Amino acid sequence: MSSRLQDLDCTARMFLSCLCLTECDLSSLGVWPKGQTCCFAAETQARSVVHRLLRDDERLAVAVTDLLDLRFADEVAHVLSLPLPEVALESSTRGRQGVGAQLVGWAWALLRDERAEVTTIGRHLMGSFTANTPKTEGSLPPRRSRRRHRKSAVH
Fold it and tell me: Could you read off the pLDDT of 12-26 as tens digits, one per residue?
């Protein structure tokens, strides 16, 4: 049994592992690091590991697919029932009006769909979501001024 997750690219798998899986999910899937981590937070390490394993480990990919299909069953069923033009229209509307948590299940439903056109809409939503999600203060390094001070030449 193959999983749709194995067919997705690295960016889509990382997007889904970051937005759709909780810390509890990561722990129950057996990817939470044991012991102290040296350079990265345990959650960051677990998400990095799971997104790579989703491509190579069919058992894990099927388990995550089942978990997300159950968690977002309404969204998955809704997307599967819609013809392509309606998926595009509703995705556009949701993308403009929705906020992070409201779009997560919709993104999963689009990216897991077998129709290539629907997956493409999911990738577009994924890009919009990533670009438009506000960053929390402190998550970005302070900006440095690009202007360089020049010594004025006196003749």
Answer: 888 888 888 888 888
Is 118:34 a contact under the CB 8 Å cutoff? no
- Cα Rg, the chain, nearest whole Å: 20
Q: Compute the distance between CA of residue 55 and CA of residue 7 in angstroms, rounded to an integer.
A: 7
Give the Cα separation of 32 and 13 in Å (integer). Answer: 17
Mean pLDDT of 123-135: 70
Q: How many CB atoms lie within 10 A of CB 138?
A: 7
Q: Among candidates 85, 111, 87, which has minimal Cα distance to 20?
A: 111
H or E stretch including 138? Answer: none
* Amino acid of residue 87: V
User: For the CA atoms of 80, 108, 127, 136, what is the dihedral angle to 10 degrees?
Assistant: 140
Indicate the pTM of the whole model. 0.74
Cα–Cα distance measured from residue 88 to residue 105, given in angstroms and rounded to the nearest whole number: 16
Give the list of residues 6+ apart from residue 150 with CB closer than 8 angstroms, or none.
none
